[in-house]
Amino acid sequence: MISKEEFEKRLTDYIDDEFDRHKILRMVKERSLSVRELSERLNLSPQRVLRHIAAMRRKNLVAVERIEGVSPLYTALEV
To answer: What is the pTM for the complete model shown?
Structure first.
């Protein structure tokens, strides 16, 4: 069993993650963006953005639209 403090921390982390994913989804619905662009606009580390993108790809919420140079640009999929 986990402590109340640990439960609250996990719940807060989960809510923060979902809020970040919602912001990412809204942004890539407007136009395709790279991890770097999302990171700069959201003031999140590229690693955190990439982790969110990977989770959203597994749920078929986003996909790579195209690659510019070496950067994949992500877009929202219609759900």
So the answer is: 0.90
